[in-house]
Amino acid sequence: MAASGRSPAAEGAATARRPRRRAPGEALWRRHAISIGTFVVVLLLWQAIIVVFHVPVYLAPAPLQVLGALRTETHTLLVNTWPTLIETVLGFVLGNLIAVVTAVGFVHNRTFRHSVYPLAVTVRTLPIVAISPILVLLLGNGYAPKVAIAALITFFPTLVNMADGLNAVDAQALELMRVLSASRWEVFRYLRWPTSLPYLFSALRIASTASLLGAIVGEWIGSNAGLGYLIVAATYDYRTPLLYATMTVASMLALLLFNLVTIVEHYAVPWRPTGGAHVE
Amino acid sequence: MTPERSTRGAAGPSIVLRAVSMSFERNGEPLEVLRDITLTIAQGEFISLLGPSGCGKSTLLRLVADILPPTGGAIEILGTTPADARRTRAFGMVFQQPVLLPWLSVEENVTLPLRIGAWGRTHPSGPSPASLLELVGLQGFEQVRPAQLSGGMQQRVAIARALVSDPRVLLMDEPFGALDAITRDRLNEELLRIWTETRRTILFVTHSIPEAVYLSSRVVVFSPRPAQIRRAIEIGLPYPRRPSMRDTPEFTRFSAELREALEH
Fold this sequence. Notes:
The complex is a heterodimer.
Chain A: H1 10-15, H2 25-52, H3 63-72, H4 74-108, H5 110-125, H6 128-139, H7 143-167, H8 171-179, H9 184-221, H10 227-236, H11 240-268
Chain B: H1 3-7, E1 15-26, E2 29-41, E3 46-50, H2 57-64, E4 72-77, H3 82-87, E5 91-94, H4 106-115, H5 119-122, H6 129-135, H7 151-163, E6 169-173, H8 181-198, E7 201-206, H9 209-215, E8 218-222, E9 229-234, H10 249-263
Parallel strand pairs in B: 3-7, 3-8, 5-6, 6-7
Antiparallel strand pairs in B: 1-2, 1-4, 8-9
Helix pairs in contact in B: 4-7, 6-7, 9-10
């Protein structure tokens, strides 16, 4: 191939930007060390306050007592974690699935959007604590009302973010699709859906912790198992170390779910999104 | 016989505009954007539409591309309507922004038009993506994501994508307007080389006088809105054009002529 008159990608070789690398391992380690250190200092301070001021256990336990409860009550905690986890995951899947399907419907049918959106907003304004007893009355004492509450609490943020994401397509990109005579399905598959993914995942991150909250609130109202039930039971019995241990487990569970979503996002949205999704 | 086969390669004009006009409705008021545009573009011409920003030249390009329907007059591309031309991929389009899909690699972006409507399966004889990336000087960047490329390289990818369905006409809407002057000059060279090698009709929208003179065989000058054709000036500079031509008296004379047409 004659190279004369052809300018190779000299400009490219010089200006191609590499993706920004993470901070080197050492700096990352340092950052973790700082946050863990802060955590330990707070725990030590807490322990010191309890000991120095002779705070009775039933009011507030010391960290070591909570740790003790985590060890002695491991079985109770685990047995009650499973129902909550199942409700959370089912609610998460159900709520987000309905939200995504509804958002897709919004984009493709204006009448559907105008009829359902105000309804969704209205349901959203009802306090979840007020809806929960209603759902327990309707759905009984089993998993169903908790799953419903977890689903309900995740539904709205995902609906709003997903509808925004599906509409966040560039006007010129739509013109490109027009020039290529793309069908509605092709516009969705090649343009709208990938555009919406960063928005979807910021909603899913919110939903991961919110669905756990929903499940726990559901268990408060009427249940004889789960972390929410354990919180209520431990409070009534003044088993404060167990109460704190339950909170610790709930917090760990939330962190786990949140990080799980972040990891999936890392693989599902490997390109660097430029436009951020907003948080509901 | 498909319209595409009967018209492609025919000797008639590439694009014909007959008394084309365009009005929008804005805030309840009619807004006249284009008035009585009549123009015939021969096959293989490099023709620039030059006019002040917002005059409606980009709108005219969108009428040709069947993105918008004109409110008056008629448009013919290779003897067919814009809608038929769009469906048979008689033209490719390059926008002001590269409009690359950030989740696809360079190669996947270039071949996107082949996947839409299963075009690649029904038209297997088009240019290979590899040859197009070589044409725009991006061989070796196939698997790179757009975000890793500079603005100039992204626009090269967009040009390769516009050529992948092997269109007879290339519509370009201020494609280098967002680039710095050095990159813009370089891409002007590249575009002329691509035009020389592929001999497509190019309809090029710009508001840069030197760019219009340097690239075009003919420049159509538009008035401010509602845009009307003021003059169509043949640029008598020989091809291949060289950067040194920018400093010749002829180049300056054509520039002055265009500037006068814009301002009169």
